[in-house]
Amino acid sequence: MTDYLYDGSWQGFLTCVYYHYYEEKAAEICPEIRYQTNLLRQAKTIVTDTEKAERVSSAIERKISPYSLTRAYAAFLADEPDKERFILDYIVLGFRVGGHLDDLRGREEVFRVQKLAKQISREAERFRGLLRFSVLKAGDREILYGKIHPRHNILELLGEHFSDRFRSEPFLIYDGGRGKALFGWGGNWETAPFEEKQLPGFSQEERDYRRLWQRYFHVIAIKERENPRCQKNFMPVRYWKDLPEFSAKEVMK
Question: Where would I find the H helices in the chain?
Fold first, then answer.
């Protein structure tokens, strides 16, 4: 068997699944950028083919279920080094058992993908409620801006929610750990590579509001009732750096 290397995209992964069935079984499927040479196996780079990827996607919908396709895609967004193998095993089992796949919760192939999909869903839901927006000034135009550092690649799962919420306002959500952003305008959205240095600065009104919010946050705190453990349970520490109320360096400016 051969290791299949791909470009890291969902379409690229599905193309690898196609070759797994129609050419040679894949020993592993791995993004080319992080592949480590295996002296015991050959490696083959698979070029993404949207037509082949669509054939696999349609086959999963027809022969297994649309829900299973959605679950597999959610698992693909996870920051998990073995996700390709987990999803491939899940799909292979699905083509064998059909629409009953997700009823087989005791099977390792189903449990692993289910677990990843739940992690993705949970983190996306957390950011729908957690995300703070600021106002950036670009000439005469204003844009809502939020910055996040999610554990998983959940940026596009926020698109529908926030594009519906901000139909009349342009917005940008920047994933600082992955160098890409979600752009929204008029009920539409898309993701694209992005660098933070491309951003305009905060509007003066936004700076004033941030200072007021930070002072309010610290003034209302009751020292005797501080409970860091409880606070961390509701708001994991890895999210703090993107919240204005925790930006201590700006509080007294």
Answer: 10-22, 50-63, 66-76, 83-97, 108-130, 159-165, 204-219, 228-234
